Amino acid sequence: MAGCCRVLLTVLLLVGSTLVTAADITARQAWIRLLPGSLPAAGYLQLVNRGTQTVRLTGVQGTAFAAIEIHESSEQSGVARMRRVESLAIPAGKTVALKPLGYHLMLFNPVEGLKPGGRVTLTLEFSDASRLPVAFQLRDAAGQ
């Protein structure tokens, strides 16, 4: 019985040492571009993976918006396009920027009262089931 427990403990330690956690992911320069009225807002930030494994951003939650999706903007033959993506890879040891004309967060139906200069907290969800609360600065339509 003791040998079985040691093997199980060793396996758990090995598996645990390869998991990426929210502690391995940091966020910086997080901001949201607010648009007039109930138009969707856009969220931008840099995600830094200091871990040894790729992790995927799989969702975002927050009470300031009715729905939040991960999107990608691109240009094809001079036409701007945007599409929803299910997840976004953050490779080990790399920084991924969510920025205008690239990957970004689409934030639908903002609650009333959001104003440039304020802050809202959104919680990022990752493929390893970790979560990371991030404070986003609210900016106007010009990004100011």
Question: Could you characterize the architecture of this molecule?
Answer:
There is one protein chain. The protein has 144 residues and is mainly β. It has a single domain (20-139), classed as Sandwich (Immunoglobulin-like). Helix content is 12%, strand content 53%. The chain contains 1 helix and 10 strands, in the order H-E-E-E-E-E-E-E-E-E-E. The protein has one helix at 2-18, and strands at residues 25-33, 41-49, 55-61, 65-76, 79-85, 88-90, 95-98, 103-110, 119-126, 131-139. Strands 1, 2, 3, 4, 5, 6, 7, 8, 9 and 10 form a 10-stranded mixed sheet that branches. A hairpin with a 4-residue loop joins strand 9 and strand 10 (131-139).
Can I get a quick summary?
The chain is mostly beta strands and 144 residues long. It contains 1 helix and 10 strands. The longest helix is centred in the first third of the chain and has 17 residues, at 2-18.
Level-2 CATH architecture: Sandwich
Report mean pLDDT, rounded to a whole number: 87
Which parts are unreliable, with pLDDT below 50 for 5 consecutive residues or more? 4-20
Number of DSSP helical runs:
1
Shape: globular
CATH topology: Immunoglobulin-like
Largest sheet: 10 strands, mixed
Kindly list the characteristics that best describe this protein.
144 residues, mainly beta, Immunoglobulin-like, 10-stranded mixed beta sheet, 10 strands, globular
